[in-house]
């Protein structure tokens, strides 16, 4: 049992016992004639001044002094450790949120037709909370948290609403999702889904099963994964920090940066949703950039799209100074790096 709850319970019990003791003591005292005759207090003669201003007044003053003394001692004793107590509460709440978030992300354990009550009780919480995000985005690895939510194929397979064909769709890894997005967009995506992809709306306000608290818990758990606290630009070599325009190194750096920052959405070859949709060549959620698809934009539009992104259209911003009203990304690319990526994409 929580020590704070136990302390409060003991104090309440002690106070109740003290009040009962006073009540019993007063009942055992010799009753006055007015009480024996059943005369109401309001109809009895009042006490003389010698009584009111003598021993009775002194008893009231002593009682008031003792009560004030108890409060003067109790309040500092209770208040001084309050900061530590609140910090402990916050730590406990955070731990419970991470535990719930992992259960919500995981697939619920299978339930037999006639389960043993003891076994069911042990798995009841996982069964009731499991939303099976892991079916598409990768499972939970207790031994290596960095490998959790590492992405995978949509399960069940995505059915193209136009052709009716069954498509193998690459669900993005979520152990690096905060390298690409801020919390607002992650919450938006979970609650409202991504039209045209297997990502359904999960928020209860949009027809899904997840309450706001459940979404909060999943986001907290994802933020705790090691990959979401790492800088993706660390994977880019030092020579590609400021690639020179018009050089052979520009295309090499463009490809390197593309694989580190862009391939997770557009595919390693920039195929997007133009692949075969098979296990070996699945669809990706990003726009197809290969075979000249991206040349529908001029270079200025292309550069600004990478820099400013398309917020809530699921294209993150990468520029150090994106358009007004667009949050600055946590891990931006320099203008030279964006230029190199643009030239690489236009050459696919």
Overall pLDDT score: 88
Number of separate helices: 13
Number of strands: 4
In the predicted model, the low-confidence regions spanning at least 5 consecutive residues are none
Helix content: 40-55%
Strand content: under 5%
Q: What count of structural domains?
A: 2
Terminus-to-terminus distance: 63 Å
Structure description:
A hairpin with a 6-residue loop joins strand 2 (158-159) and strand 3 (166-167). The strands form two sheets. The protein has a two-stranded antiparallel ribbon. It has a two-stranded antiparallel ribbon with strand order 2-3. The chain has helices spanning 3-28, 33-37, 49-52, 55-79, 82-105, 117-129, 134-137, 177-180, 183-192, 212-224, 248-266, 299-308, 335-346; strands at 152-153, 158-159, 166-167, 170-171. Helix 11 crosses helix 13 (335-346) and helix 12 (299-308) packs across helix 13. The chain folds into two domains: 100-229, Cytochrome c-like domain (Cytochrome Bc1 Complex, Chain D, domain 2, Orthogonal Bundle); 233-346, Cytochrome Bc1 Complex, Chain D, domain 2 (Orthogonal Bundle), CATH 1.10.760.10. By secondary structure, the chain is an all-alpha fold. It contains 13 helices and four strands. It starts with a helix and ends with a helix.
């Amino acid at each position: 049992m929580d020590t704070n709850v136990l302390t409060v319970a003991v104090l309440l019990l002690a106070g109740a016992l003290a009040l009962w003791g006073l009540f019993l003591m007063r009942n055992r005292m010799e009753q006055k004639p007015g009480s024996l005759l059943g005369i109401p207090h309001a109809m009895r003669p009042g006490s003389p001044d010698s009584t009111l201003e003598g021993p009775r007044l002194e008893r009231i003053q002593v009682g008031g002094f003792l009560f004030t003394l108890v409060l003067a001692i109790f309040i500092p004793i209770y208040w001084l450790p309050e900061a530590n107590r609140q910090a402990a509460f916050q730590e406990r709440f955070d731990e419970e949120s991470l535990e719930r978030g992992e259960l919500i992300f995981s697939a619920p354990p299978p339930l037999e037709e006639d389960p043993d009550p003891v076994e069911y009780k042990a798995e009841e919480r996982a069964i009731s909370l499991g939303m099976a995000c892991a079916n598409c985005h990768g499972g939970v690895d207790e031994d290596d948290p960095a490998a959790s939510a590492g992405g995978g194929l949509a399960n069940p397979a995505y059915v193209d609403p136009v052709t009716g064909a069954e498509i193998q769709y690459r669900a993005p890894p979520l152990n690096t999702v905060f390298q690409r997005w801020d919390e607002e967009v992650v919450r938006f995506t979970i609650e409202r889904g991504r039209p045209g992809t297997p990502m359904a709306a999960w928020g209860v306000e949009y027809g899904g099963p997840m309450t706001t608290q459940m979404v909060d818990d999943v986001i907290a758990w994802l933020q705790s994964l090691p990959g979401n606290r790492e800088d993706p630009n660390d994977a880019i070599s030092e020579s590609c920090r400021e690639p020179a325009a018009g050089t052979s190194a520009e295309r090499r750096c463009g490809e390197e940066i593309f694989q580190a920052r862009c391939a997770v959405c557009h595919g390693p070859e920039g195929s997007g949703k133009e692949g075969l949709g098979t296990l070996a060549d699945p669809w990706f959620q990003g726009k197809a950039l290969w075979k000249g698809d991206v040349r529908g934009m001029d270079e200025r539009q292309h550069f600004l799209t990478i820099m400013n992104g398309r917020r809530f259209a699921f294209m993150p911003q990468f520029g150090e100074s994106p358009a007004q009203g667009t949050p600055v990304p946590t891990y931006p690319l320099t203008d030279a790096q964006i230029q190199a990526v643009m030239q690489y994409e236009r050459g696919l």
